[in-house]
Amino acid sequence: MPIHTDVKAIFSSLEGLEEGYNWLITDFELNYYPKEFKNKEIIWISGEELSNILNTNNIQFIWGVLSGFNKSINIDINKLDIVPFADGNTTFWTNYAEIQHPLASVEIVCFDSSLTIFSSNNNDILQKFNNKFSDAVDLKRYNSFSK
């Protein structure tokens, strides 16, 4: 993968499953801001719309958290109790690393252009991701050995 935080490549690996979610995008910094992202700090967007934006623009997430929610869940971005974040989040490097928002089913964390943390409680999505990115390291396993 030429870019370690290439969300378009990650979505491609999921073979359309990403479109079955609505996505909360927080704590993001991009190399290019499409009009749907300009002047926004938090975004709530359908998987179909996000896939279309990624497929029609050359976007790299330098920082950011993309949290995928079942389509039946509605989030009011003006009343978020939990705002997932990447920069400065030390919980990634503990044995207790989990998806940050308790209602999310998928989490993609883009960390300073250098790595992506991918988590899901959907085994089909995890399998598709692992099939495409076979050299990916399991974060919980990594954390248990790095102590």
Helix/strand-derived category reads alpha+beta
The DSSP helix count reads 4
Give the CA-based shape: globular
The CA-CA distance between the termini, in Å, is 28 Å
- Beta-strand percent range: 15-25%
Strand ordering within the main sheet: 2-1-3-4-5
Total domain modules: 1
Number of DSSP strand runs: 5
What Rg do the Cα atoms give? Answer: 14 Å
Low-confidence stretches: none
Q: What integer is the average pLDDT?
A: 93
What is the helix fraction of residues, given as a range?
10-25%
Along the chain, the helix and strand elements come as HEEHEEEHH
Topology:
Blueprint: H1 7-13, E1 21-30, E2 43-46, H2 47-56, E3 61-70, E4 106-111, E5 115-120, H3 123-132, H4 139-145
Antiparallel strand pairs: 1-2, 1-3, 3-4, 4-5
What features would you highlight for this structure?
147 residues, single chain, globular, alpha+beta, five-stranded antiparallel beta sheet
Please explain how this structure is put together.
With 147 residues, this protein is α+β, with helices and mostly antiparallel strands. It has one domain (7-145). Helix content is 23%, strand content 24%. It has four helices and five strands; from the N terminus they run αββαβββαα. The protein has helices at residues 7-13, 47-56, 123-132, 139-145; strands spanning 21-30, 43-46, 61-70, 106-111, 115-120. A five-stranded antiparallel beta sheet has the order 2-1-3-4-5. A hairpin with a 3-residue loop joins strand 4 (106-111) and strand 5 (115-120).
